[in-house]
Amino acid sequence: MSDTLRESVEGPVTDAVFEIRDLRIHFPTMNGDVQAVRGVDLSVHKGEMLAVVGESGSGKSVTFLGVMGLLPPSTVITGSAKLGETELIGASSKTVRRVRGHKIAMIFQDPLSALNPVQRIGPQIVEMIRSHDPMSKAAAESKSVELLDLVGIPQPSARAKQYPHEFSGGMRQRVMIAMAIANDPEVLIADEPTTALDVTVQAQILEVIQRIQHELHTAVVLITHDLGVVARVADQVQVMYAGRSAERADVMTLFKDPTHPYTVGLLKSLPRSGQERLTPIIGTPPNMLRPPSGCAFRPRCEFATDVCAVDLPELRPFHNSQTACIRVEEIDLEPVL
Amino acid sequence: MTDLSEFEAAVSSPHVPNDELDSDEVNALIESVSPSRLALRRFMRHRVAMASLVVFTLIAIWIILAPITARYGEIEILAPFNGKRGLNSPGAKAWFGTDQLNRDLYSRIIWGGRVSMFIGLTVALFASVIGTLVGAVAGYRGGIIDDMLMRTTDLFLAFPTLVLLLVIRNLFDQLTWLNWLVGDLKSIRFIIVLLVALSWMSVARIVRGTVLSLKEREFVEASVALGSSAPRIVVRHLIPNAIGPIIVALTTSVVAAIVAESTLAFFGFGIDPVYKTSWGGLLGDSKGQVLTGKWWLLVFPGAVFVITIMCINFIGDALRDAFDPKQGQARR
Amino acid sequence: MIRFILRRLLWAIPTLLIVTFLVFVAIRVGTDPVASYLRINSRASPAKIQQYKEANGLIGTIPEQYVRWLWKFVRFDWGVSIKGRVPVWPSIKAALSNTFILGAFASVIGITVGLGIGILASLKQYSKFDSLSSASAFIGLSIPPYISAVLLQLVFSYYVTKWFDLSKPFLPPSGVYPPGHGDNFDLFLRFKHLILPGTVVAIQTIAVYSRYMRASLLEVKNSDYLRTARAKGISETRVIVRHALRNALIPIVTVAAIDVGAIIGGLIITERIFEYKGMGDFFLTAFENGDFPQLMPWMVLVVISLILFNLLADVAYAFLDPRIRL
Predict the structure, then answer these.
(1) Mean pLDDT, chain A, integer
(2) Bridge partners of residue A82, in order along the sequence
(3) Spacing of C-alpha C198 from chain mean position
């Protein structure tokens, strides 16, 4: 955990391996632009696990799909996403292609549908290796077996010759991880990697991801809506709401001393022992075709006043966190845990 | 393709109160397209169906009002004109020209349309009723009835349609105990019975499939639990809920019946051409004449025929979309 | 796999027996062979009729007749036609090879072009090309083959010939070879006679397959594993060819196998209009003459082809999709 301490809350440090600045993603539709991401800043360091938390439609997945160049061509993406020295936004598709799968890799939610059903596991990993590293086929094959072994798949050389449908859900997700880390990426993005899995399997998968983080010093971005998972594995947490960052803190601070009403709402809605009913956040998330002015959480916030409607709130330091709530000094956020 | 309606749902309310949907939503957005194209396509889709409906209605009125719209009788032979006793090219006296016997093609298309359309609609109606009942019972009861339905229809649907039509045509003609039903070999009734005998099958299979999936639904199970009788469940719950696919199957059957009748007529296996004609019969008349340049015999009935078929197809397609927006796009 | 194929082939035998029996009954009842005989030999003496009945196994109950027919059939004793007393096998063999050539010609062109259009349309979904190909496919499917056939004859055999003042039709409207040519193989003439009927069949095939391919590829394009493939950083061409097409073609191959199996009995309309001496024309002529000895072998061959190509479709499916176990 010592790595996490390096990230101070005073401001972004410059040695981040992956850094997103003012990222905006719009989807043009018949009814107008859907503003899925509206100016997100984010950074992650070597060997660190950053959890990006938010509800559906908060823009957390879209942010990273956009960075990876996996959104449709009609999407409008502006801002900056730097992987080391390489700028990804606005880069040629060739540049982006050379980076993705190589320096930045991604794992998806549903491991069954994410693997090509008619190709054996081995060749799928070999394809990943050889598209970025001109090694011989035999070398790539033996490397793919090593990778399967690394993610904890028993009898890896036999399993490499099998098809995805011959694997269980957890094993398939391990295969996805093996494939993602095949080229030893600097950043691994895991988009809800455990959502589609059984609870018991979830823990194993998280453990594999954590091991990669620690052993290979990979920077991991864990996209999730599950605060339980966050508490267990993340170092840093970034809370997203309506396409913007609401709060950023290290995991201990976030749970102990949340500095945004939305974070408090999320924490309150967690099931706890001794509590009979869950406390949901009242209201529904905004329509991203016409998001409200100012703070997007305003319509659901018990502390909201007219000032909240004026400006888009930016992240700013407060206590040990960075928060986007402009009234955080004036309001009394009760501790949840 | 992620469907338009799903797409719109995702866009207008991107926040489904279910966390799992995040990826789906992204998928919906991934398939997003330039907005003008999308609008154009939707507009086109509806506009084409609407236009088809208008054209089809006009053709129907034109045909139904035959005694007013037709200039001559159905088998009326015109006195020789332009020095010819047949095959006059289009002109003031015969707008679409005349056939070998100097009968006015324009009027014959109208009269023939009555026959074609009557056969198409009647066959589709009977086929839908029979197919719905058989399909619903087979789907609901399962077991031997279902197996028999599936095996028999497998067999029939695999065979070339024209071969089946011809073989069964002869069979019906020879089976004297069927005479009360089928009537004379070259009568309209015979053709209708023949086409119904084959076309109920595809309806039955569609209804069976729908009923099979409906059967598992809660409201049917609830009804079973409440002790409703099987016929009551089939008639009150299953058939009304399968009405969308049935209507779509009905439009498909109309086209299939019109085309099948015209195919038979084209090759001279249709109704007796001495007294009546159908579009297929008119097209059949063109067969030997085009090589001597009698283009009107093919072009006019062919155009009316194809336009009618296309209109019904477009209407059917729009209905399919309306009833089953999830599949409409991918399937067609 | 081999066990599956053998089992299916074994099952094909009872299927064939049942189907041929049903067909036998239908044709035997539907077309009275004696009446057909008398239509052609109207002054046949009772002795001649008796002889004809015996030669064609028309004595006894229908099941008895079926068994007798079957016994002769499996010994390859297929007899002679009623009209013209032509041996059945050589004429059906010639028809088969003609249909095979027309079917192969039209299917290869139709399926290739159809798949090409479908692939382009789905890769450029909502483009002008997509709309145009969709509309064309719709029109193509709404024009019955006999209308397009006669229209092609009108344009290419009559009008083009007239406009350019040619002595012979620009494209022949009928036949496998020009009248009087005989059966000597001549590639150019053969090809020339294939163009019009081939076009009629190909139009339908293109329309159907472009729709299939478009739908299938669109579904795959939307799949998660295609996103994974893109996330690997491989080229878009490789994503489409190695991942998308490989998956999208599985259902198409299955459908194509079944369609090809239906060809030998499915080109009746086209073959008749172009007087192309294939299986379809053979059937229609035999049917019009009530020529029982020709009809039955035709039916059997059609059914065998349907069964075999259905089996082929299943095998191909299992071969292409590892999730299917036979």
Answers:
(1) 88
(2) A19, A87
(3) 12
Paired strand residues for A43: A19
pLDDT at C261 over 70: yes
| ipTM of predicted assembly, 2 dp | 0.88
The answer to whether the CB atoms of B38 and C150 lie below 8 A apart is no
The rounded distance, in Å, linking the Cα atoms of B74 and A133 is 79
To probe the interface with A, which of C232, C241, C253, C321 has the most A CB atoms within 10 Å? C232
**What H or E segment, with its residue span, contains residue B323?**
helix B296-323
CA distances from A278 to A22, A299, A336, B17 (A): 35, 21, 13, 15
Distance separating alpha carbons of residues A194 and A110, to the nearest angstrom:
8
* C-alpha of C316 from chain center: 19
Q: Which residues pair with A104 in a beta bridge?
A: A100, A187
The reported pTM is 0.84
Residues 6+ apart with CB under 8 A from C199: C106, C148, C152
Rounded to the nearest 10 degrees, how much is the dihedral formed by the CA atoms of C111, C117, C121, C124? 130
Q: Which of C235, C242, C321 sits opposite A97 (nearest CB)?
A: C235
Q: How far apart are CA A71 and CA C205, in angstroms?
A: 35
Tokens describing residue B289 = 């004449």
**How many whole angstroms separate alpha carbon C28 and alpha carbon B175?**
12
Alpha-carbon torsion angle A7, A12, A13, A19, nearest 10: 100
CB-CB neighbors (< 8 A) of A289 in chain B: 11-12
The pair phi, psi for residue A265, each rounded to 5°, is -60, -45
Q: Report the pLDDT value the prediction gives residue A8, as an integer from 0 to 100.
A: 41
Helix (H, G, I), strand (E, B) or coil at A100: strand
Q: Say how far apart CA C62 and CA C69 lie, in whole Å.
A: 10
CA distances from C230 to A63, A132, A186, C220 (A): 16, 13, 18, 13
Nearest to B253 by CA among B114, B129, B148, B169: B129
Contact A136, A79 (CB under 8 A): no
CA atoms of B32 and B22, how far apart (whole Å): 16
Model confidence pLDDT, tens digit, residues A117-172: 999 999 999 999 999 988 999 999 999 999 999 999 999 999 999 999 999 989 99
**pLDDT 10s digits, C134-153:** 889 989 989 999 999 999 99
Give the sheet arrangement for strand A18-29, strand by strand. A32-44, A18-29, A76-83, A86-87
Contact A17, A186 (CB under 8 A): yes
**Distance between CA C257 and CA C251 in Å, rounded?**
10
Buried b / exposed e along B278-310 (16+ C-beta atoms within 10 A): bbbbbbbbbbebbbeebbbbbbbbbebbbebbb
Cα torsion C285, C290, C291, C297 to 10°: value is 90
Instruction: Pick the residue from chain A with its C-alpha nearest to B33.
Output: A74
Token pair belonging to A74: 């009609």
Note the pLDDT tens digit of each residue in A19-57. Answer: 999 999 999 887 788 899 999 999 999 999 999 998 888
Q: Which of C224, C127, B188 is nearest to A111 (CA)?
A: C224
Q: Measured between beta carbons, which residues in chain A are less than 8 angstroms from residue B21? A: 56
Among the listed residues C206, C319, C304, C225, the one whose alpha carbon sits nearest the alpha carbon of residue C261: C304
When CB atoms are compared, the residue of A68, A113, A118 closest to C321 is A118
Burial code (b: 16+ CB inside 10 Å, e: under 16) for B117-137 equals bebbbbbbbbbbebbbbbbbb
A73 touches chain B (CB under 8 A): no
pLDDT in tens, A276-319: 677 788 888 888 888 888 898 988 888 888 888 888 888 999 88
Token pair of A269 as six digits: 């809605």
